Structures are given as C-alpha cells and as structure tokens.
Amino acid sequence: MTAYAFWNNKGGVGKTYLSFIAASEYAHQNPESDVYVIDLCPQANVSETLLGGHEESAKAVKSLISSTPRRTIAGYLEARLNSPFTPVKNVEDFLTRPSDHNKKIPDNLYLVCGDYFVEILSEAIRQTSSLPIPFDAWKKVMEWVKDLVGALKLRNPSRNSIFIIDCNPSFSIYTQLALVAAEKLIIPYTADDSSRRAIENIFALLYGVGDARTEAYAKLSFSKKAVENFVEQPKLYTFISNRQTIFDGEPSKAFKAINQIIKDMVDKYHKKHKNFFTNGKKQASDNFIEIPDYHGACIVSAFTGTPLFKLKAGPKNIGGERVQINADPLRKYKDALSDFVDLL
C-alpha cells in the first residue's frame, strides 16, 4: 500500500488534473489493484471530474452531500468530530464508486468525494486538536485521514491498493490531515517564480526549514508539533514540471531557465536534508518529470470526465464550441503522463 499526496502551496499548477490522471490511468493499467481517491479540497474538482465532468457530476455530488451521513470526506470528518478519539467502524458509508456515475472510469477505482463543508468543519477540527485531554489529542486528530486510509486498505487486504490524495493549496488543517496520511508527496509546479516561492513554502510549512526568519516562525507550528508528537510527515517523491512551454519541438528558453533555478534550489535542500526525500542518494532534480503542455486535451478530458486512455484525437464539442484534439500532441502528452503513472 502506498499513499500519495498531490500538493503545492500555489494553485493553478495542475495538481487536481494530475491526481485524476494518476488514479484513472493506474486503475486502468492495474485491474488487480484497488485505487482510492481521497478528495481533501473543498472545491471537489477531482471528484467532479471522476463523477462525469461538467455536465454529469453536479447531480452525483448533490446526491452524495444530501445523504445521511454525507457520503463525502466531510461526512467522515463530521463522524470523527462526534467521537474524536475513536476510529469510525464503517467507512463504507463515505465511499463511492465513480463508475456507477461515469462509465469511462475503471470499476476498481473508488472515491471519497470532496465537499465544500470541509471548510466549515475546519475550525471545529482545529479546536478538537487543541484539547488538553487526552495529552495526545493533536496527534490523534492529525491522523484521522490516516485512519481512513488504513480502514479502506482492510476492505480487501489480499489486493494491492494505492491512495491518491488531492490537497488544497492552502496549509489549512484539512491539508495537514491529508499530508499526514500520505507516505509520499508529489509536487506539481509550473516554471515561474511564484512556483519557486511556493516550493520554498513547502519546505518551511511541512519541515520547518528555510532562511533564519522563516525557520523561527515555521518551527512554532506544524513541523515542530509533528516531531514532538511522533507524527510522520510524507517524503518528497517527485516534482512534476507541468504545462511545459514548447517552441519548435523543444522547451522554450525561458522555461528552461526558470526550471533550472527551481531544480537547483531543490537540490540545495536535498543536500542539507536528504531525510525529507524518498531517495537520499540521487540528486532530487534527477527525479523531476517534465510534461509538455496540451491544454486543449486537459480541458476536454476534465470537462467530460474522460481518462486519457479513453481520449481520442479528433473534433470535440465542448459547451457548444468545436475543439480539435490533434493526434501527435495527444500522443506525446499521453506518453509523458504514462511515464509518470509508471512511477507509482
């Protein structure tokens, strides 16, 4: 069993779509495995895509959040709030099979649906983690989603299972729950300076390292508590340079320049803090993955809830507009994403 969190402290880097691709493609390539997607972003975008995309998902999501209990991650967290220090016995109440709503999704993929109500619950979760009794209240609350992962694994203990956890960009308490539940962290980014700063924030927020001023504040919060309470943090697994700009068949000079700055920065962290990474021997930049941009394919795939293995070249009708998916860029895009899925 391996649990992967997809997170970046910056939005708009494609983490939700990569979560969708990772889950659906892995499930397609490995029918003997169970794939679980846990959507811990209140916007629930990966859930919407898995449940059929723009036109089909609204009805499914409404049905799930209208159930009693809510068949969503918020329903699970609400159950934990009602009994904070006792694991939930029946996690089936919060599980959905997307293929019941979207026939393009493999049957061996399961979803704990995202829910806007997570945002409403976040202050109650934070206050519960601060209770003076029991003495390890913070640790127990931080491991709520980790408990869920363990319970889902026991549904079919004889089958291999992997978990894809889609995170919100903010370092809110529900993002912290997601990260504690993960063994490996996948960081999508774009080659720009805001992504560089966001990756610096990841090291500060999750591990408490950075410049002197950053460390002075970061070590007062999550990273310090995690160490003191023996709460495991995920290891950095890979960085995905997403939406790579191509010019004449090659990455643009601007893309290469900024991408190299980010790689050099991460390598410096790796040199000082090999224990933060899954591979302490190789340079961190050796594990970077570059994916060429094919925004049209992304839009069609996400809008219609279509995994890449189902997506074909040709004209598509999206919201009354004709969109052309060209065969050669689609093939290159599929190849790059297939290489990524092969690492899981």
Quick structural overview:
With 344 residues, the chain is of the alpha/beta class.
List keywords for this structure.
344 residues; Rossmann fold; 44% helix; 17% strand
User: What would you call the structural class?
Assistant: alpha/beta
Q: What is the count of distinct domains?
A: 1
Gap between N and C termini: 11 Å
Total beta strand runs: 11
Named CATH topology: Rossmann fold
CATH superfamily: P-loop containing nucleotide triphosphate hydrolases
Query: What percent of residues are in strands?
Result: 15-25%
Shape-level CATH architecture? 3-Layer(aba) Sandwich
Average pLDDT rating: 91
- Quick one: biggest sheet? 7 strands, parallel
Q: Detail the poorly predicted runs.
A: none
* Percent helix range: 40-55%
Major sheet: arrangement of strands: 3-2-4-1-5-6-9
- Gyration radius, in Å: 20 Å
**How many helix segments?**
14
Apparent shape: globular
What is the helix/strand order?
EHEHHHEHHHEHEHHHEEEHEHEEH
CATH class: Alpha Beta
Describe this structure in words.
The protein is of the alpha/beta class. The protein has one domain (2-341): 3-Layer(aba) Sandwich (Rossmann fold). Helix content is 44%, strand content 17%. The chain is built from 14 helices and 11 strands. It has helices at residues 15-29, 45-50, 57-66, 73-82, 117-129, 137-142, 144-153, 173-181, 193-207, 212-218, 222-228, 253-272, 295-304, 327-341; strands at residues 2-6, 33-40, 109-112, 160-167, 184-189, 235-244, 246-247, 250-251, 289-292, 314-318, 321-325. Strands 3-2-4-1-5-6-9 form a 7-stranded parallel sheet, sandwiched between helices. Strands 7-8 form a two-stranded antiparallel sheet. Strands 10-11 form a two-stranded antiparallel sheet. Helix 4 (73-82) packs parallel to helix 5 (117-129). The longest helix is centred in the C-terminal third of the chain and has 20 residues, at 253-272. It is globular. The model has no long low-confidence stretch (mean pLDDT 91).
